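Query structure, 184 tokens:
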């Protein structure tokens, strides 16, 4: 009988719940030391300050009697679920974190943590810092290492012309300066 019609396992099957190899490598969370500290500080704030205050409020509301029409209780429970969800998410990001600290190093090539000045085809200069996905802050010109700009710049050197893929099509940009600042 063909093996396709039997229910026996030959041991090659993936364990239920395990992620494929490709998915596990993409879940790596590259992060700067400053970004890691911010994630850790947020978890600490939620766990040691915000959550205990909310649990105290919920306990008080529960002691008032009928919970079905108790707005403080219902809202408190909902808010507690949101805090717990955020704590779980942050802990997963922290567990998957790979801290990359290139601050103060003198690389001549663009790597994670680099602050890069480049010029587009029109000569307009722009400076961006390549950081982890949890540290993106466009107001401070911090872009993810997976963004199109960072992907184009990574592994480039000063004077290189690299291709930036945009919705309008490909655009040539020139790397003018590379530095590695402390991103704390």
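Result returned for the query:
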């Amino acid at each position: 009988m063909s093996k396709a019609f039997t229910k026996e396992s030959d041991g090659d099957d993936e364990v239920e719940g395990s992620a494929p190899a490709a998915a596990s490598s993409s879940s790596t969370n590259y992060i700067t030391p400053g970004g890691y500290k911010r994630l850790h500080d947020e978890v600490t704030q939620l766990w040691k300050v915000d959550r205990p205050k909310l649990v105290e409020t919920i306990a008080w509301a529960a002691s008032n009697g009928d919970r079905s029409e108790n707005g403080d209780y219902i809202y408190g429970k909902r808010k507690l679920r949101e805090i717990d969800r955020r704590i779980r998410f942050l802990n997963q990001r922290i567990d998957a974190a790979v801290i990359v600290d290139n601050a103060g190093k003198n690389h001549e090539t663009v790597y994670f943590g680099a602050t890069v000045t480049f010029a587009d085809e029109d000569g307009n200069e722009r400076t961006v810092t390549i950081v982890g996905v949890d540290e993106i802050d466009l107001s401070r010109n911090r872009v993810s290492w997976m963004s199109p700009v960072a992907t184009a710049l990574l592994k480039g050197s000063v004077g290189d012309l690299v291709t930036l893929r945009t919705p309008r099509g490909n655009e040539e940009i020139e790397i003018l300066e590379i530095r590695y600042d402390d991103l704390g």
